[in-house]
């Protein structure tokens, strides 16, 4: 395989995003091989046409944008901050289900009169009247400035900070911060509080791609389809369970009618309906095995429905994958390429 046909994927090298990404890919049958944590490169044995590059989550957007890699998994907050004017980068999947956090405005707890965005707007005017600007420490300059301007808050200045953002107000080089939080614990430990209405964006892990590189290479596009199909089918499978029960009855049709017409709730007789097969038993000649696939939330109603039609010996299993007639994610991805 030539180099330009290899699909290159950048993955987070450490932290919560790295752990979540590895868990997701492993569950999809796309486990990543990385000989040791100091190596920057890895592979996916199930997809030998894929090469993995490990990077800091904050740098993955840049790697995709410059074309060093074709795909990347990073935080949606990073994409929103860095992707202001990069047309080559497209968001393929914005919600992978892990790494959830939010970008918030936080002020010192001692500011008892500042608890909402309206209070903050009034505070900036007080600062202006004193010939000052409210100083906000953040790594998210574009997002913070744009969001505040949309709220008609304009009298502030942004302070670039490297390292622990939460220490900025107590150290005196900023008045407040705009930073990422997941639980709020670190903010509270540093005597900071989120202000009401001060959530700029909600974020989680997302999949991005280089539009130009993927458009130009059919082989990479085909590999991307396999990658997306497996991710989508595995994530879709978490929504469903498969239930099998033995039911005593006169015939396949008679049991089918009981299952379909006695169901008071939509979906408890299966997504499309039950699958019924003859059970060859030494004790009973009238047993049939009934299998239905239902949403997780309908598990107990479906169990009770099977009981009501004579179901016994019920077993429940979770599917590894659920494939639709086509991959919605891949079709959406193709439309973005065009």
From TrEMBL:
It catalyses: 1-(5-phospho-beta-D-ribosyl)-ATP + diphosphate = 5-phospho-alpha-D-ribose 1-diphosphate + ATP. Feedback inhibited by histidine. Pfam families: HisG, HisG_C. It is found in: Cytoplasm. The keyword Amino-acid biosynthesis applies. Residues 238-316 form the Histidine biosynthesis HisG C-terminal domain. The keyword ATP-binding applies. One of its GO terms (molecular function) is ATP binding. Its main location: cytoplasm. This is ATP phosphoribosyltransferase. It comes from Trichodesmium erythraeum (strain IMS101).
């Amino acid at each position: 395989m030539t180099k330009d046909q290899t699909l290159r994927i950048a993955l987070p090298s450490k932290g919560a995003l790295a752990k979540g990404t590895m868990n997701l890919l492993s569950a999809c049958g796309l486990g990543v091989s990385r000989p040791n944590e100091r190596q920057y490169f890895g592979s996916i044995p199930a997809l030998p046409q894929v090469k993995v590059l490990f990077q800091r989550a904050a740098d993955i957007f840049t790697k995709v944008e410059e074309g060093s890699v074709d795909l990347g998994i990073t935080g949606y907050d990073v994409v929103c901050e860095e992707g202001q004017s990069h047309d080559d980068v497209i968001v393929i999947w914005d919600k992978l289900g892990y790494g959830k956090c939010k970008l918030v405005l936080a002020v010192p707890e001692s500011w008892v009169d500042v608890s909402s965005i309206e209070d903050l707007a009034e505070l900036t005017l007080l600062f202006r009247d004193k010939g000052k600007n409210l100083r906000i420490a953040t790594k998210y300059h574009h997002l913070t400035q744009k969001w505040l301007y949309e709220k008609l808050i304009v009298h502030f200045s942004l302070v670039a900070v490297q390292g622990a953002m939460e220490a900025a107000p107590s150290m005196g080089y900023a008045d407040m911060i705009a930073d990422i939080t997941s639980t709020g614990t670190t903010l509270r430990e540093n005597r900071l509080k989120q202000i009401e209405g001060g959530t700029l964006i909600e974020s989680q892990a997302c999949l991005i791609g280089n539009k130009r590189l993927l458009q130009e290479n059919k082989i990479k596009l085909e590999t991307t389809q396999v990658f997306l199909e497996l991710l989508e089918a595995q994530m879709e499978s978490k929504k469903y369970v498969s239930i099998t029960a033995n039911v005593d009855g006169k015939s396949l049709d008679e049991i089918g009618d009981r299952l379909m017409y006695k169901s008071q709730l939509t979906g408890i007789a299966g997504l499309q309906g039950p699958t019924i097969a003859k059970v060859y038993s030494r004790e009973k000649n009238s047993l049939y095995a009934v299998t239905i696939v239902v949403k997780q939330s309908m598990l107990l109603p479906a169990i009770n429905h099977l009981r009501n039609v004579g179901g016994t010996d019920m077993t429940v299993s979770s599917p590894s994958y659920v494939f639709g007639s086509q991959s919605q994610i891949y079709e959406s991805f193709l439309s973005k390429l065009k």
